[in-house]
Structures are given as C-alpha cells and as structure tokens.
Amino acid sequence: MQFKVRIDEGAAQGKYANFINIWHSSYEFVIDIGQVMPGRNEINVFERIVTNPLRAKLLLKALEMNVAKYEETFGNIDIDRHPMPEIDGGKLH
Q1: Buried b / exposed e across 33-61, counting CB within 10 Å, b at 16+?
Q2: Which 8-state DSSP code applies to residue 67?
Q3: 3-state secondary structure at position 73
C-alpha cells in the first residue's frame, strides 16, 4: 500500500530543537522535543510524540541510516566532545 504524505503549513515551517528526551513503558515510547535557551536552566518542551515500540525501532533505523549518509558527506559527528547534560538528577537521553 502506498501513502500520499501531506504536511500542514505550520508543520512544514519546522522548529529548531536542541533538546530531545526519550522514555518508555512496556507499551509505548514517549519522545519530548524542545529547546534549551543559553543562560537559562529551563527547558521548553513544545512537542511530545507517543508511539509504539515497532515505530520507535523503525525511527531508530531511519536515524542510523541518515546519520551514516550525513557522516559520509560531511564527516564524523564527534559526540565525545559534548558531555550529556543532567536534568532532575538524571542524564538526558
């Protein structure tokens, strides 16, 4: 089955995100997306996506493929230079 993808005008504009936190239960994955502004200790979550484990794994595969293509073109993304910040006593994901 083929689907025609439609995106509404507001979503097509896009939003910049520099915060992503992921958590899960036995039935679903929850992905919070937002922004951390310089000099502030507050995170503005503007989108929450709730999905099932299958879609979460497919998203992981799609991200892996796209990051590999990006690194082939632009070079390695060095995450070791960027320590993970903490939130509420735990590490962000």
Answers
A1: bbebeeeeeebeeeeeeeeeeeebeeeee
A2: H
A3: helix
Which positions ≥6 away from 36 have C-beta within 8 Å?
18, 19, 42, 43, 44, 85
Half-sphere exposure of 84 (CA within 13 A, CB side): 9
pLDDT in tens, 24-69: 999 999 999 999 998 888 999 999 999 999 999 999 999 999 999 9
- Residue 45 CB contacts under 8 Å (≥ 6 apart), including other chains: 19, 21, 32, 33, 34
First to last CA, the chain: 34
Rounded Cα gap, residues 39 and 16, in angstroms: 17
80 DSSP assignment: G
- pTM given for the model: 0.78
Which of helix, strand or coil describes residue 72?
Answer: helix
